[in-house]
Amino acid sequence: MALAARPWRLLPVGCSAARGLRLPAGAAGSRGQRVPWRLGASEVMGNSGTFKRSLLFSALSYLGFETYQVISQAVLVHAAAKVFKIEEVLEQADYLYESGETEKLYQLLTQYKESEDAELLWRLARASRDVAQLRGTSEEEKKFLVYEALEYAKRALEKNESSFAAHKWYAICISDVGDYEGIKAKIANAYIIKEHFEKAIELNPKDATSIHLMGIWCYTFAEMPWYQRRIAKVLFATPPSSTYEEALGYFHRAEQVDPNFYSKNLLLLGKTYLKLHNKKLAAFWLTKAKDYPAHTEEDKQIQTEAAQLLTGFSDKN
């Protein structure tokens, strides 16, 4: 990588040591004019201490500027190397994520948990959450990871409010934390969650996952139990609400943006059609979810749920 050009010069163009050296008034004369570099022996001996100090000062100044120049170049090289390293880590992280290597991904990214890079931080939030969802993760570890994920997502958003992924994962992590903080907090957080999902969609309307998550938000409040609705009405003048039709619209929109991008979107299309009593379309989407290639633990769980729901169809028929 080419180094940046030097931002300053030590001397003006055309100036050289041969043109003279400005000395203190006592040495240069009463007017303080510029005197020739080649002084006579009597002139030097007349104020040798002042001359030597001036010469020493000039030499040190030159060395100081040279040192500054070297340090500046070193800083630029270090900054460039740091950026390159982050890019390299992000490439490794994305490869591990696509490969379903959840634990390896988490181990890689936690080495850089003090990073100030938003792209790295939201990926770390995602990795923490994915580890929390593994079957082998204890309840105590899961709670720790859920709150840890929220902290990383919050930092990512603070570093870059224009990152759609930071908004998305911040909303996801707030939702996860709600499971530990009671129904009141969960309902209160619903407005914040919706706001960040909408912002993520605004920043990147081609991100199918953000659209899918808005669908989940709508689905969740469409199927909210009556007792939770009552609590919501007591706590809030206008509690969050939605319909299955709204949820279905988001799930279909996500599928249009990126067909077959996520097994859960297929499952929820099937489940939403079930809620709307359309068994034919429900069976179509549930079959797609069941046959979806399992790359993650979540994919396997979705395959199982879709198969069970389809079995329920067969039993009733």
UniProtKB/TrEMBL annotation:
Q: What would be an example GO MF term here? A: microtubule binding
Does Cytoplasm count among this protein's keywords? yes
Q: Which InterPro entries match?
A: RMD1-3_a_helical_rpt (IPR049039), TPR-like_helical_dom_sf (IPR011990)
Question: What Gene Ontology cellular-component terms does the record carry?
Answer: mitochondrion; mitotic spindle pole; spindle microtubule
Chief location bin: cytoplasm
Name the keywords, alphabetized. Cytoplasm, Cytoskeleton, Microtubule, Repeat, TPR repeat
Subcellular location field: Cytoplasm, Cytoskeleton, Spindle pole
Q: Which Gene3D superfamilies match?
A: Tetratricopeptide repeat domain
* SUPFAM superfamilies found in the cross-reference section: TPR-like
Its family remark reads:
Belongs to the RMDN family.
Subunit structure of this entry?
Interacts with microtubules.
Entry protein name: Regulator of microtubule dynamics protein 1
